[in-house]
Amino acid sequence: MAKQNKAFKFRLYPNKEQKIQLAKTFGCVRFVYNKMLEERKETYEKFRNDKETLKQQAFPTPAKYKDEFPFLKEVDSLALANAQINLQNAYKNFFEGRAEFPKFKSKKNKQSYTTNMVNGNIKLENGHIKLPKIKKPMKMNRHREIPADYKIKSCTISKTKTGKYYISILTEYEKDIQSVKIQKVVGLDFAMDGLYVESEQGEKANYPRYYRQALDKLAKAQRILSRRKKGSARWEKQRLKVAKLQEKIANQRKNFLHHKSKELASTYDAVIIEDLDMKGMSQALNFGKSVHDNGWGMFTTFLEYKLKEQGKQLVKIDKWFPSTKKCSCCGKEKEMPLSKRVYECSCGFVLDRDHNSAINIKNEGLRILA
Ligand SMILES: [Zn+2]
To answer: Which pLDDT value is given to residue 319?
Structure first.
C-alpha cells in the first residue's frame, strides 16, 4: 500500500465576521513573513562572505514577534508556522542557486494562508468547514465528496483579486496501485506557440480558440487600464474587469490542461517528455512571459499524477538530449536553427521539425524504459 495525496478545491462563502478574521490572518501571515525576511536579509548581508557562519545562523521564528506584536496571537498559529516554512523553502532555493532572493509579500498579490490538521482542529460538516480560530463552520460549495477514508492533512484558504474565497483541502489516502505493463508509449515535444506536438501522428495540441480570444480581450482591457488615472473610480472599475478576465483565463487554462493530461493518461501507459528548465529557457530564448504562461509546468504536474494513479509512468529525459538535432530515421545529427520548420536529412528523411523531435523523445524514453 502506498500513500497518495489528492487536493480538493472548493469555493468558500464566509460571513461578515469570518471575512474579518480571514483578512486578519492573511495580514498577520504577510506581516510575519516580511518580518522574518527582513531579519534574514540582514543576517545574509552580514555574513554573505562567510558561508559557514551564515549557515549556522538560526532562522527567525514567528514566536519571537508575539510579545511585541500581540495581535499575532489572535490568528491561527499554524498559519504563521507555515509562513516560516514557506520562507525557509524560498530561502533554501535561493541559497542553493535555484531561485532569486525571496521577495517581500505585498497586499496586492493573491492572499492566502495554510493551516494543518492537528488533533481534529479541522472538521467537515453539512457542507461547511470548521477551521482553527474561525468562529462557526464556514459555508463551502462542496460540489464533490471527499471519500471517508481520505485524511485531511492541510488546508489553504485564499482570496482572489476579485474578492472570491477558495479552500484547497489536501488529503492523504492509501491505495494499492499495480504497475501497468508498458505497451502504448508517446513522446511529447514542448511547443512554444501551443502546448506540445506528439510523436504518433505529429498532432499539435493547441489551446482552444475561445482561450486565445480571451487572451486578446485581456490585453485590450489592460491597455485601457493603463490609460486610466490610477486610483480613480474608472480605474478601479477597469482593474476589477482585468482581474476577472485573468481569473477566467487561469480557469480556462487549467481546465484545458486537465483535459489534455487526462486524455493522454488514459490512452498511453507511458509518456515521455524533456525535463525542461522553464525559467532558464525563457531567459535564454528571451521569450519572457510567454513560456511561463504556456502552462507546461502545470501540465506536466497534472500528467504525472494522473499517470501515477493508474500505475503508469511519466519519463523525463535529460534536457541536453539533442531531440531537435537528431534525424529520427537514421540517427545522424545536424544543426537546426529555430527558423527551420522542416527537418530534412541527407538520408532522404523529411518531417515537420517538432514531430521529428517528438519521435526522438519517444525513442530515448523507450531506451530508458527497456
Ligand atoms: Zn537521416
So the answer is: 83
For residue 3, the model assigns a pLDDT of: 85
Separation CA 127–CA 12 (nearest Å):
10
User: In one letter, which amino acid is 348?
Assistant: G
Query: Per the structure block, which three cell numbers stand in for 86?
Result: 514557506
How much is the pLDDT for 144?
87
The 10 Å Cβ neighbour count of residue 296 is 21
Residue 288 has pLDDT above 50, yes or no: no
Catalytic residue among 269, 304, 354, 364: 354
HSE-CB of 190 using CA atoms within 13 angstroms: 23
Ligand 1 (single-atom ion) residues, CB below 5 Å? 327, 329-330, 332, 345, 347, 349
d(CA 130, CA 144): 18
| pTM, to two decimals | 0.77
Question: Interhelix angle for 296-308 vs 233-267, to 10°?
Answer: 40
SS3 211: helix
Cα of 275 to ligand 1 centre, how many Å?
A: 25
CA distances from 264 to 55, 249, 254, 260, 311 (A): 45, 23, 15, 6, 14
